[in-house]
């Protein structure tokens, strides 16, 4: 990567390693990985099961601290922050999307999204208004008051996308976002993520082993045994 790309990058990862456990049971899940993601760029990280994709994504989003190495977000060294600073960073700087949607089953679709705005400091009325606007843009206007169990898989994932966007994060991180969707709906979700990246200039990092979503990415990286390899 040249200096200009580095200077413009939203997220910079330098020599990041993650080891779990110690002694005989120690596992090195990610080893000395470096990468950078530009604003508005969609990076797809592919690799077989167990190759370290979720571990790497969790470190990118400050859910997990690297054992070694550094992660910078817009110039801030987030990998060096104290544990008690991380919840706020996660809430405001990152939007997370998971394969099993992770919606709260007792809350309506709207409440699932509004709650995350409230956690970041928005008042109830303002949070619900923001959530409703965003969900309407994502085609969920008729589903606001539905419980998650009444929604299709594609609708649940769109609620999760609205939740990921509600605090206006610079970076969207998605872990196997199409794993529980049929291929047509999976593709729709990926096109939606692409539109969000390009229209709103957000960086999107997706980890997946789904070959079918390669075409929506600007760049595809291949992870194997915790390291990037040539495809
Ligand atoms: P992927 O998402 O590509 O399937 P993971 O990041 O989940 O890969 O796992 C990478 C490696 O780290 C695997 O060998 C896995 O068993 C191990 N691993 C993942 N999470 C933990 C954990 N919390 N404790 C111990 N080992 C783990
Ligand atoms: Mg995984």
Bound molecules: adenosine-5'-diphosphate, magnesium ion
Largest sheet: 6 strands, mixed
Shape: globular
Estimated structural class: alpha/beta
Q: Count every helix, treating DSSP H or I runs of 4 or more residues as helices.
A: 7
Roughly what is the average pLDDT, rounded to an integer? 94
Provide the spatial order of strands within the biggest beta sheet: 6-7-8-3-9-10
Order of helices and strands: HEEEHEEHEHHHEHEEE
Rg, rounded, reads 17 Å
E-strand count: 10
Strand percentage: 25-35%
- Proportion of residues in helical segments: 25-40%
User: How far apart are the termini?
Assistant: 18 Å
Low-confidence stretches: none
Describe this structure in words.
The protein has 231 residues and is of the alpha/beta class. The chain has 7 helices and 10 strands. The chain has helices at residues 3-8, 53-60, 86-93, 109-119, 124-137, 153-165, 183-200; strands at 11-20, 27-37, 42-46, 68-73, 76-77, 94-97, 171-175, 203-208, 219-224, 227-229. It has a 6-stranded mixed beta sheet, with helices on both faces. Helix 7 links the parallel strand 7 (171-175) and strand 8 (203-208). Helix 4 packs across helix 5, helix 4 (109-119) packs parallel to helix 6 and helix 6 (153-165) packs parallel to helix 7. The chain is globular.
